[in-house]
Amino acid sequence: MIRGILAIRSRRQTILSVMAPPNTLLDLRDLHQSYGTTPAVSGVSFTLERGMIACLLGPSGCGKTTVLRCIAGFEPVTSGEIHLAGQCVSTPGVQWPPEHRRIGMVFQDFALFPHLDVEHNVGFGLRKLSATERAERIRECVQTVGLGGQERKYPHQLSGGQQQRVALARALAPRPELLLLDEPFSSLDVDLREQLGQEVRDIIHRLGATALLVTHDQQEAFAIADEIGVMRAGRIEQWGSAYELYHRPANRFVADFVGQGCFIPGILRAADQVEIELGVLRGRMSLGTHAEARAGDGRVEVLLRPDDIEIDDASPARARVAKKAFRGVDTLYTLELASGRRLVAAVPSHHDYAVGARVGIRLDVDHVVAFPATAHE
After folding, report:
1. What is the pTM of this model?
2. Mind listing the pLDDT tens digit for each residue in 162-183?
3. How far is the C-alpha of 127 from the C-alpha of 133, rounded, in Å?
4. For residue 350, how far is the Cα from the chain centroid?
């Protein structure tokens, strides 16, 4: 009986593997995972093509790290399937151990061995190679991450950024099929985080590697990933490029979570027109629940991003500067309309307006993003 079940599973696995596109490296199909009676992941599905860098982005507790741990083989799955390079590595009753998955992982705290120097940390997973091959691979990886000359230093002698590079080199050294990065920059300061994010992206693409990052930091996701899945409560709310998530959010949660902006009420006048306090907006309408708005009384809430609003002293529409935050290249102004509603505007920093000043504003909206007024999430 057991042999028969295994045969059925084997045939089913072969059929499912054939269904995946030939360039697909990672394929998650309706993944569920629970801790006891508490669901952590609820129906997550996505594919990752070879050479791509993807990201799971979401707030703490949304399930993104659990997904990563399931892919790595550290957690079993309650239901669903994980396919890696055409092989089913996780499903109820099937659990390939992490060391058989050809996956490299960079942990949040780097997890370097404090008693080993850089050379031996990087070479830790290369024990099956000959001494000559091992030394050459270590040299390649250390040079790739820009740590040439640091081989004899120990982790405590390195900066946070250097430790992160060592962790990346160690994960890449065995030439994994897939690289997983679990909040790899969270312990670094903001400036270093941005710099290293770009460097890591360049290294991964230069090596032709495939990677999946998890983070709660949208700027980190934007800087590194080719495609991003926004997660909430164990589900993926939207999967797409940073541009798509920012300009065409699928729902109110994604619109709120990705980028800055404010919602103001409006009335849907036509398929491509919505009237708000500042006038009528016309253009491409991003309204996933357009039918709901038209079936109701037409009331919507319109998302205005900081880059949708310009300060123009010649404009008849006026607003009061309620707050300002200097950010170097620009200043973020909080503007209060006559109704008391507030907007935010990013203005080049060579313009300087005092708090309390009344300024003219105009809208330059290319993507009109709106949701039915009752669709608060």
Report:
1. 0.86
2. 998 999 999 999 999 999 999 9
3. 10
4. 32
